[in-house]
Amino acid sequence: QVHLVESGGGLVQAGGSLRLSCAASGRTSGSRAMGWFRQASGKKRESVASISWNGGNTYYADAVKGRFTISRDNARSTLFLQMNSLKPEDTAVYYCAASELLGLVSSAAAYDYWGQGTQVTVSS
User: Fold this and answer.
1) How far is the C-alpha of 31 from the C-alpha of 59, rounded, in Å?
2) CB atoms near residue 87 (< 10 Å)
3) What percent of the chain stands above pLDDT 70?
4) Secondary structure of the chain: what % helix, strand, coil (to 5)?
5) Are the beta carbons of 35 and 48 closer than 8 angstroms?
6) Of the chain's two ends, which shows fewer C-beta atoms within 10 Å, N or C?
C-alpha cells in the first residue's frame, strides 16, 4: 500500500505561483509512474500532468502546457507540481496519484493510489 499526502495548495491571485508537493510513504520501494489530477467544482476529474518512474518522460494537459512543471525526487519519495501564471480556471482540488506501472500514464484508470487532495484557488 502507498500513502500519498499533498501539500502546498492555497489562495493566490491570477498570475501568481504555487508549488504543490506530494509525499509518498508505505510501500514506496520501486519507483512508479505518478501524476497530478484536478477536479473543479461540478466538473469531472482531469489529468494535469504525469511523469514516468525515472522522470525521463512527462505529459501535460494542453491547458497547463508552458505554465506547469512536474518533477520528482525519488530519493525523498516526493512529487512536485510547480504552477506559474495561474489563472482563475486553474481553481480546483488537486490530487496526487501513483501507479503500479513504470511508464508514462495519463489516464486516471491507470492509477492505483490517490491522495486526499489540496485546494488551489486562484482569484481574478
Assistant:
1) 17
2) 14
3) 98
4) 5, 50, 45
5) yes
6) N
Output the pLDDT for position 31: 78
Are 78 and 97 in contact, with CB atoms under 8 Å apart?
no
**Collapsed DSSP state (helix, strand, coil) of residue 77:** coil
Q: What are the pLDDT digits (tens) for 42-67?
A: 999 999 999 999 999 999 999 999 99
The torsion angle over the Cα atoms of residues 27, 37, 109 and 78, rounded to 10 degrees, is: -20
Strand partners, 18: 83
Nearest residue to 39 via CA among 72, 6, 14: 6
Q: What is the DSSP string of 13-71?
A: ETT--EEEEEEEEES--S---EEEEEE-TTS--EEEEEE-TTSS-EEE-TTTTTTEEEE
Distance from the Cα of residue 61 to its chain's centroid: 11
Place of cell 509518498: 24
80, three cell numbers: 512536485
Question: What's the rounded Cα separation, in Å, for the pair 112 and 2?
Answer: 9
